[in-house]
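Margin note: ligand = adenosine-5'-diphosphate.
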Amino acid sequence: MSRYPAIRVLPELLTNQIAAGEVVERPAAAVKELLENSLDAGALRIDIDLAQGGIKRIRVADNGHGIAADELPLALARHATSKIRSLDDLERVASLGFRGEALASLAAVSRLSIATRQSIAAHGSRLEAVGGDLSAPEPVALEGGTVVTAEDLFFNTPARRKFLKTDSTEFGHCEDAVLRIAMAAPHVAMSLTHNGRRLWQFDAGEARARVVAILGEEFIEASTGIDESAPAFGISGWAGLPRYSRAGRDQQYLFVNGRFVRDKLLNHAIREAYADVLHGHRHPAYALFISLDPTMVDVNVHPAKAEVRFRDSRAVHQFVFHALNKALSRPAAETAAPIANPFAWVSGHANANSGAEIRSQASPAPAIAAWTGARQSSFGALSANEPHAFYERLRGPGADHADSVMTSPGREAMASPADVPPLGFALAQLHGIYILAQNAHGLVLVDMHAAHERIVYEKLKSALDLSQLASQPLIAPIPVSLGERDMALAESHHDFFVQLGFDLAPLSTREMAIRAVPAMLPSLDAPAMLRELLSDLAEHGASRALTEKRDEILGTMACHGAVRANRMLTVPEMNALLRQMEETERSGQCNHGRPTWYQFSVSDLDKLFMRGR
Ligand SMILES: Nc1ncnc2c1ncn2[C@@H]1O[C@H](COP(=O)(O)OP(=O)(O)O)[C@@H](O)[C@H]1O
Ligand SMILES: [Mg+2]
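Resulting structure:
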């Protein structure tokens, strides 16, 4: 006889209670399981009724295909499912459920009742399960569909119950679960009631209408639509533009084959796509729907199926990254549409009243093409040959001091809208920081350094993608004195600097000569940039510097190369900058994700001055 307790098979109720810990750890998880069952049953209408955060009661009523009366007890048995029969089925499962655990788990930890009726049945059947004990099914009056009611969750597992939070916290989680399912199933009408109050009601409709109902018109207006497909995958939905970024992750809806997921790999792909346009402390908002062949994804990783595994995770990552990156890279004139509320970026909320002014997906104005020819490629000088006639017209008769902020061209003097490029013509520079410009809508305010920094940065990236950066030899080499570490770094990374357009030669043990600088950044403070690049290099390690940290390195260079605050620009220089912004990808945000320009429409300004129009 052993001195230790003997091995025994656990009673069924206990195993179900253990499983319940994973499958229905809180009311929201039960809500999710019940809603998934309704969707799997082909329901087109689902009504959810909760009491006390779902702890007191969860009721989900659907008009799906129902359960045959004689199978009702089986529906509550563990590992009993109508959705798969074999391993083969499991590997290509398209339903949301398949583990046959949810109802059994819920029956083990609540007072559960199911009433159901298939359309061919003469009447409905109802069955109760309290703490695992099943009643005999009895007839009940019911139209087609299923009503599942779970009351007093965890009433018989007090330890579990203790982990529940307040009613309102639990309700919040339930609401999230409902909204996620609602977003994924726009064709299903749904309602959510809590403590007798109807809080959400969705009509059946298109995906866009459902996204608007959940995230608001502000989101859609400030987002870019995505619809890409490759032979193996598809992605559709809406990605919030950087100016609609949020302080938290509350508006991130990501679905794989209709299933809400939080997936590290996909999150990484999305974060990467936003990395270049979004400030590091902000979070993007999105509603993205990824579809792929069910055999390409394993959903049986986690009892609650919150995680998935992709068969070819690299391909999925690439696909998602590229689709998003492409959508987010549309140049300023296309996506960074007029914003009536200049604080939209700060609060994460665009002004709802400004909806009509925001055009998130306008195609590039024809004016861009017309003006492309006028641009000059030299970045340092920022000069451009603007046709002078436009200027004269813009400035109006007699206004010959365009350099002054007092210039007031008057509306009638505006060139006809078709002639005006999207970001308009520069009027003046304000405090050495901002450019004021006039376009067809009204006033454009540009952060000159931020905008130029992005332009230089994008230029550097494309140049480096093609080959190394072009180099500009200096007539007189510039000596720079460096510390021991920096001397060693500079010497051992000769090639790195050559790639960036530098030519360095040691003059002594503590002195380096800069003999050539990147041709794109002629006016830079070469010693300062060299020092900063060396410190980047020391921090990131050389091997990663030009691969993973390439963008940061180029960002450092762009910052040095961009026009500084307080540099006075001439009007043609300002216009050159505006034209370059119109052509540059992602120019609506600087490298750090801050906005580079805002639009104030004439009607915004009229409102400001309470001018009735
Ligand atoms: N709302 C419903 N409408 C129709 N059938 C349902 C519904 N809910 C559950 N069922 C049936 O009960 C079975 C068990 O449900 P569940 O325990 O959630 O497991 P699973 O969903 O993994 O199959 C399902 O396979 C399905 O046949
Ligand atoms: Mg289920």
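The chain has a mean pLDDT of 82.
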